[in-house]
Amino acid sequence: MKVGIAAAAALAAALGSGQALANGNELLQACQSAVRYIDSDGKNGDAYKAGYCFGVINGVTSLQGLTNPSLPKQARTCLPAQEVSVLQAARIAVKFMTANPERLNLDDGAVVLLALQRAYPCP
Fold first, then answer.
1. 47: which residues sit within 8 A by CB, 6+ positions away?
2. Number of domains in the chain
């Protein structure tokens, strides 16, 4: 139990440890741009925003992979055995943020984590 609490605290600290924290509003714009950029083979969207979106997603999924075993079951994310691509995760994040605008005030990493937890809950 103590390990689970420590892991959850570490995850929360890591997600909230930026100098200038971005929130879901910035992430939504960036991930929408990232999807446009990839879908158009780089003709539409913004490469910088795509990099920001994909960077947040990679950071969250990497940290989640390390801390997931120590978290309480309801806080875990059970990604499928076949790896979820960063583009698929961006689409999941955009769908979640569009459907849950009340969550856009949260830290960008927290929004991605919530989106993945909603998309891939543990049984």
1. 37
2. 1
> Hey, what amino acid is at 26?
E
Q: So what's the pLDDT on residue 8?
A: 47
pTM of the model as a whole: 0.80
pLDDT at 94 over 50: yes
Phi–psi pair at 7, nearest 5 degrees = -65, -40
Range of the domain at 9: 2-14+23-119
Which are the contacts of 92, defined by CB distance < 8 A and separation ≥ 6? 84, 115, 116, 119
The answer to whether 97 and 27 are in contact (CB under 8 A) is yes
Mean pLDDT of 71-98: 92
| Nearest-angstrom CA–CA distance, 75 and 68 | 8
Contact 89, 116 (CB under 8 A): yes
